[in-house]
Amino acid sequence: MIFTNKENNIVETALQKLEEITGWEGRWETASEGVDGFLFLKKQGIQEAFATEVKSVFHPAHLPRLLDIREKHGRALALGGRISQGMKEQLTEANIHYLESGGNARIAEGGIFIFIEGKKGGLSQQRKHLFTNASIRLIFQLLLEPGLLKEPYRKIAAVTGASLDNLSKTIFTLKENGYLTALRKREYAFTDKDALLQRWVPAYGERIKPRLLIGQFRFLKDDHWKGLPLDENKTQWGGEPAADLKTGMLRPETFALYTLETKAGLTKNYRLIPDLKGPVKAYRSFWNMERFPGKTVPLMLIYADLLLSGSARNAEMAKALLDAEQKPVLPTI
After folding, report:
1. Which fold has domain 133-191?
2. DSSP one-letter code for 243
3. Residue ranges per structural domain of the chain
4. Which residues contact 49 (CB under 8 A, 6 or more apart)?
């Protein structure tokens, strides 16, 4: 693992702050593969080692990776420039330690118990602006069909529904952020789809998903949800029910539907009863559903829904879903 200067600064600043506050001396060793490195903490004859992932900012999309590290090494630590309060809660629920460059930490393992909150500051890497409401929708479809990047702009626009202006700006910004490489004139390929997905998930959750909500419902008969006769070109399961249909490993507690149908149509066709406290949330579909028919939304969106739920159980399921599918979330070109 080769770190940028920014990532090195995050590690050095975090260890310096931790020693100033707690007296625990930290030593960092970069790993050649598998994890970013190992953090060794030492004080008064006690020493513990932690397999560590370093990020400028941690998002829910990073949880499966951290869970995988915890599974392989017995413990995992997220070392970040800044970590939001919500993300800290998810890490704690998943039994993953964290250390922020400003000094905030939760590390409880062996002879170590460190819990620090309320420290200000911290380093985060500023990147060139990438996500707009329009580009989030477009990037989703390009990740689903990366072969489109080899097509003329007008064909991409026709398939995705994006304007030529949005398409041009999004392609340019993806290149500027290092996610696209040019093959020849106006033909491109993704360089790191997984890294882009990790950034796309929180952007989708913050900027787009809340606006897509059509309404909330309850079932006429709760245990018959799998039998609903969905029009698969217009309405598909997302989130927990989609994961259950894929793996048979999750009993859904909340239900996501993505649809092109109206609220009245959902009630008429599927006997869903409007209920502000109901377990079913219906969202407006934002991609070309006819290109991806089936009972469930594309795997990438199931993955995002599970991570955005804030549930450690669902983060575990996101990882299990990929293992069960035995293929990556994202198709190759």
Report:
1. Arc Repressor Mutant, subunit A (1.10.10)
2. H
3. 5-116, 133-191, 208-325
4. 38, 39, 40, 41
